């Protein structure tokens, strides 16, 4: 996932050249920045896992703030991909190192698809962050030699394209075909646990590439290029950044295994799924016969009643005939009560 995976270099028949390549293509500051992004990603995935396993009242990773965080983290990685491509190939494209790096990322992406297809068949990852990095790395190669201003302009166009295509006057129905979902130009996003389509995200790779090509001379002259991690945390971040692909592949299975053990011992959070239930109830209620205020009051009443009568459970709980009849009676009673004099929810 990063330029750090390209340490084995062509031309190993000249040891001094290999050493020089490692020294000039590896910057601890860039590795540490990638390590910080990995730490943020792990925090986000922990939040997602807690919600998925019903250890929190709701899945905060899917809330608006959580989605913003996810986009910022993905964007940081993709900008760093562009920077890494420049650092790895600054003296000319190194086909062997580039292809080895691409193969590692591509194989890892396929493993992610296979694993999530098994674990989450309805929302498996078919074009996530690794898929985007692999394809973007190939598409970015020509921009290593053209003007960095051209890379900047094309990057901005790539970022703006989805917003333009979302306009009905410019939208092309062909992009709604599921087989083209990886482009990100359809009207409706696919159901998947990680979706990083080429547009707009390829634009960030090009912005990182342009930034590196324009700023590398100044960076090399500054003290930042000579920065070395001194403290244990900074050394840990730099180390993680140097092995970002391995960290990415390993951290989520470990987190899920650990938190699955926790939920096995503690059970789900007593209010897990309640906010989602109330929202679903309100949506269905308003779509049938109720006004917004009545449905809002009834939704809270039904959720509380189900919990009080020990009929509340995490999503997917099945009722027997007696429980279903009782739940329906509680729902009707709550709606009738809410439909009378307005009560504060």
TrEMBL record:
InterPro entries listed in its UniProt record: HGSNAT_cat
Annotated transmembrane regions: 29-48, 68-87, 99-118, 124-144, 149-166, 198-216
Sorted UniProt keywords: Membrane, Transmembrane, Transmembrane helix
Domain Heparan-alpha-glucosaminide N-acetyltransferase catalytic: residue ranges: 26-253
Annotated protein name in UniProt: Heparan-alpha-glucosaminide N-acetyltransferase catalytic domain-containing protein
Species for this entry: Methylobacterium bullatum
Organism placement in taxonomy: Bacteria, Pseudomonadati, Pseudomonadota, Alphaproteobacteria, Hyphomicrobiales
